[in-house]
Design a protein that fits this description.
The chain is mainly alpha-helical. It has one domain: Serine Threonine Protein Phosphatase 5, Tetratricopeptide repeat (Alpha Horseshoe), CATH 1.25.40. It is 80% helix and 0% strand. The chain has 7 helices and no strands.
């Protein structure tokens, strides 16, 4: 399998994760597919992507884990994504997004202290996003963190 084929699978599975995340009441089978798709996109992005895709792939595993009730797994991947994003070349929107992911992961664990801390960190980062559309998108994601 070549890099382009890995990229196509990564894109396909990442997009499938979003489709599944948008379902209000997923079945158990859909939850399983969400988590499986998250790991598949993660694998393929690490074969075909670059630094930003690595961050987004880990963020998506965290998002899927949080949505399916796997708080420990969500925190693990959210922290990986956050740590990986701490470079000057990471776009402002992605840095804010991974902080949102950490807040969401702690919410999934039921840790309100850490959730609130990371929510505040993410909110500060959202305010620094220069592109208005990116700022609105990430702010919308942040507003959906369970409180």
């Amino acid at each position: 399998m070549n890099k382009e084929e890995h990229r196509k699978i990564g894109v396909n599975r990442y997009n499938r994760c979003w489709t599944l995340l948008e379902i209000d009441h997923r079945t158990s089978a859909e939850d399983d597919e969400l988590l499986e798709s998250a790991f598949v996109q993660h694998y393929h992005w690490f074969l075909a992507g670059g630094p930003d895709q690595f961050v987004m792939a880990e963020w998506m595993v965290s998002r899927a884990a949080a949505a399916t009730g796997h708080g420990d797994l969500a925190v693990h991947y959210a922290r990986l994504a956050y740590d990986r994003a701490q470079t000057p070349s990471t776009p402002d929107w992605l840095q804010a997004s991974v902080a949102e992911g950490v807040a969401r992961a702690y919410a999934a664990m039921g840790d309100t202290t850490q959730r609130d801390h990371w929510f505040a960190v993410a909110k500060e980062l959202v305010e620094k996003i220069t592109d208005r559309e990116d700022r609105e998108l990430i702010d919308g994601q942040l507003s959906s963190v369970p409180r």
